[in-house]
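Bench log, entry 3. Co-assembly request; chain sequences pasted below exactly as received.
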Amino acid sequence: MMNFRNATRISGVVATGAIAALLITGCSRGEEGDGGTGGEASPGITDTTLSLGISSPLSGPTAGPGSCTVAGLYTYLEAGNAAGGFEFGDGNTRTVELTYLDDVYDPAKAVANFRQMVDDEIFAYVGALGTPTNAAILPIANEEEVPQVLLVTGATMFSSDQDANPWTMGLLPTYFDEGRAFGELLVERGEVTVAILAQNDDYGDDYVAGFEAAIEGSDVEVVASATYEPSDPTLDSQVTELAASGADALLSAVSVTPLQVGVLTKAQSLGWLPEIFLPSNTSTPATVVVPGNGAAYPAVYSTSLSKVPVSPAFAEDEDVIAYNEAFAEYGAGIAATYTPHCAWSYAEGAILEQAFAGMTEPTRASFMEALRSIEDFQAPLLLDGITVNTTDPTLPAIQGLNLVQFNGTGYGPVTAG
Amino acid sequence: MNNTLAKLAANTWVRIGFAVVVAVVLVVLPLVSSKYVNYQLSLIAVFGVAILGLNIVMGYAGQVSLGQSAFLGLGAYIAAYGVVEGWPIPLIFVLCAVVPAIVGLLVALAAARLRGLALAMVTIALPIIGIPLAKRLREFTGGSQGTTVSWLRAPEWSGLDHDQWRYYVVVAIAVLMFLLARNIVTGRIGRAFRVVKENESVAIAMGVSPYKYKVLAFTIASLFGGVAGFLYLGIVQYTSPETLSFHTSINMVAAMVIGGSASILGTIIGAIYFVFVPNLANQVNPQLTALVSGAVLLAVLFLVPGGIVSLPRRITQAIRAVRRRAGGSPPETPQSPSDRVPAPATTRPKSTEKKNEGKRQGQ
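Structure output for the full assembly:
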């Protein structure tokens, strides 16, 4: 009798929980099997509107770049809507709505957000920031045939096999490309010795792999290398070890801003003044190069692909003027501080516009086809010479990188050597 | 009115009817819900199991643990590795339960000698060590890009969609884990936990070794964490170092306290809170999710410090207070059966129940 009572009691507990769950999630009845129903219009598109979705970290440690991925894109789309909407290849003009949600860089939340937006009938999922979050969504997007495109991440996995994942595509050049760009610069110089400092994970590996691919068979020689953990408090011992090699150049693939500053100050305090290469995400003059007294080195290089709207060097640029004006109106409420992601996602809006113009049918398949046939498109805010090419199914949308050199206040064209 | 409700709740037939209704709802729900709703419901089951483990070690045994996400992540990684290697699923499940339990046991053997803050520090270390370790052991974990898997697909004969099948598997396992937990906390071990939580000297005097039971509580919590990791991989189909994130641990502790410490029903409420509040915050304003979540947390803790599970009792108390002030009917005797309604799961031995109730009110 006791057991029986207990059993019913526990069922009561389960019951309450279940009913609460029901109430909370809302007893919405979803349609049976959505996705690409051939011929008919895909979900999320009408003759006058199109809805897009993005889930990025808008709170937590990655909130800065995450907010910018939303703000830049939102700015471009809203400015386009205000100007009358976007022209589509099927002859219609549509306004484009962007739904954005916060995932705190948590893959489980990102999947929840993605599923929610697909339920709410977004046409495509665009421009989301984050490697783990996008990796979790990738198989679902491809199973449900929802475009998951122009992702803001430097990982190779989103673009390297688009035959296997036909609904996924990255936006940015990969870390591999950055490492390779620096390697190519050194190869032109001839005999050079290099020291490498890299993060002990795939991020660092990609850099080093790209660099090594570029210098293979050349006179460039790696004479010392060291790794670190992002949680290390200081890299002084690694720098000291590398300094002993007296290498001519240092590839400092350090992704943590304070640690990168530490590398710059430590090396010069040891009297070691190699040419320095900084990855694009820890090369900001104000936070890294100036505090680290980068001017002491013969040259500090980095890579760049976009104009910097906040820099006086670009103040007269037409793209920058248009961006600054639109951003103040639409984007400033979403992202308070500028990171390059704002510019990238603004350019991403223009890439989407190109794809819309190529869409002959209101379907996701037609969108993907149009998106995959963009050639030599000069998107706004991208540096001259960096174009968008989406036809290679193993590469992200933007492949080019410009090597830039620190000139005392900001970055300019490479001058030395 | 409360009396009638209580009588109604005590009626066996009403309870059975209620249970049947719930069972039917749980079974039918995924058939009529969208994939998104099924995913959310499944996530509630997943984190319900993880928070349940946390509740056993923190709520019932009174030992601070801030490392539950490490066991969740460990379970998920074991499952991912097993799936990639093509091991049979029952074997994967057993490993997901046993390996984290052993790790938890080994950590606890050393850590359970400590108390209070020192113990909390040791448990914090687990996710902090776990994340770089997961990034470094790339052959097993896939590094910081994580591991994507495709498994627990609906078999042909079931005629179900994958999300429905996964929901059933996960909810079935979660229900079993809840029954297991309930048996643990209402039995001899549960009583020992409570004494250890209350006063270790008293426990020793009663012949209960606090050290042994603390280690046991940690081991059980780790086992639940590992099983939750298995379920996590079943639902999310992906794991990365982010799964171990310390942030997740803290959020689970918050969810447990909000739901109701030392309560099975509270655990379920906590899991719903854990999954639901980020969504709610996103609906309110995606730019202010942290603020909205924080506001909800504060509001709950101010209004119902004993967790949401104590809400019916708070309401009853409030109603009585109002009646008393109005000078209406004389106050009911505090021993009335309605006292038992809010926490049905923890009411087996009368003496401990009373003590427990008092304790919770004090929190």
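The two ends of chain A are 90 Å apart (CA to CA). Residues 24-38 of chain A have pLDDT under 50 and may be disordered.
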